[in-house]
Model the fold of this input.
Amino acid sequence: MKSTSETGHVTNVANFAEILSRISTMGTAYAPSNPSYALPTLQAQHMAAKNALQNLIDRNTAFNNAVNERMDHFSDLKFLATRVVSAIKACNPGHEIIKDAVAINRKFTGRRAKALPAVSPETPAPKTISVSQLSYDSLIQHFKTMISLAMSVPNYAPNETVLSIAGLNAKLADMETSNDGVSTAYTHLCDARNVRLTILYSHQTGLVDTGLGVKNYIHAAFGNSSGQYNSVRKIKLRNIRK
Done:
């Protein structure tokens, strides 16, 4: 279900378009002295608002896709780390190295990283999978430590590509790229929200304040009981500055 504020933004833009539709029927009688209220200017403002809403939807989709891609790259980490420990043990490296490998592995097996639910354009975007050491940044660091330990074992050279040092480093690169991708997508999402905030709700110049000003002009120009004012008086615009 969409949030009240999310539907409110869409309603504001739709209602602004309705006001423009009513203005278009007034002909030359609609003649505001304020250039910001001229119909072509209002139409351009409406288009900018529509574009801002669509851009936010696109950025939100990109963020959700980035989160899903990151989850794909991290989903098998617990099992891969356990396999690396077994590969290290198979090399008979000594008690202390095995002890270190098991200790590192515990950092992955405390609990699995859980998939994040898709968010709407109004939902604060989460940055990590938890407030514990199982944040994605921490998982990356733990995996780096595991790779470093495997590299310290002289005869660590498994034939399985996924367990090889090259394979582990490739996995690490995918993890880091997908994690950075979420951060970048989140930044773009925040930027898109700020653009919408500016275009719709800037004091005096935003779409809502402009629309309210236009209604005041129509009231003044045609009178309280005029058909022109009655056609727009019940069209609501609401500031949602958040």
User: Anything to note?
Assistant: The chain is about 65% helix and 0% strand. The radius of gyration is 28 Å. Residues 4-230 form one domain. The chain has a mean pLDDT of 90.
